[in-house]
Amino acid sequence: MKLYYSPGACSLSPHIVLRESGLAFEPVLASTKTHKLADGTDYYGINPKGYVPLLELDNGERLSEGPVIVQYIADQVPAKKLAPANGTMARYRLQEWLNFITSELHKGFSPLFNPAMAEDAKPLFRNKLADRLKWVDSQLAGKSYLMGDEFSVADAYLFTVTSWTGYVGIDISALANLNAFMARMKARPAVQEAMKAEGLLK
Ligand SMILES: N[C@@H](CCC(=O)N[C@@H](CS)C(=O)NCC(=O)O)C(=O)O
After folding, report:
1. Residue 64, Cβ neighbours under 10 Å: how many?
2. What are the tens digits of pLDDT across the range 55-93?
3. Atom from ligand 1 closest to the CA of residue 9
4. Under 8 Å between Cβ of 31 and 6
5. Alpha carbon distance 115, 113 (integer Å)
6. Rounded to two decimals, what is the model's pTM?
7. Whose CA is nearest to atom 6 of ligand 1?
8. Which of 139, 145, 152, 169 has its CA 20 to 30 A from that of 99?
9. Rounded to whole angstroms, what are the CA distances from 23 to 97, 163, 176?
């Protein structure tokens, strides 16, 4: 498989999950700024949506949308328990998290990274995200990971978007559960491997 990614972008989530899965894959850098690969290939020709992540399967089929990609990977290695079994209530709980992270967190950050966004509009997005993260913090009380004691693919996604807070001026220092979660995630070998491969960690 190939994972099209950009360093530190939301593609870090499936990148972590691939490393947790132990499956063979090749990370392929796709710039979110130029929309070109390192050899100059037009990324729009690979993913017409222009964004990362994109997973290319061994049969050449391409799968987009982070929350779906991570579930696909998890389902290839059920013994690793990266996601609860399909059809169970626990799986819907996982999807509830993935959907929350993608729509209420991830896409709330996008305007803050957009240079065209007016400075005076940014506090609106920062405050909304700070509220949402405060709620996430409350949900992590007494838990190691979003789903309980065990890591799931939703944790890779939460870790990825929370790591953006420092870049956009959102202070999460008071959110003790969320900070403990971030430290727990950073200690996972798969997270360290993915971050190193993306040049985010030495
Ligand atoms: N709905 C997509 C959104 C992906 C997305 O927003 N990717 C960003 C990086 S975090 C990107 O590649 N932006 C560049 C662009 O949209 O051209 C998903 O959840 O996978």
Report:
1. 15
2. 999 999 999 999 999 999 999 999 999 999 999 999 999
3. 10
4. yes
5. 6
6. 0.98
7. 51
8. 169
9. 24, 25, 33
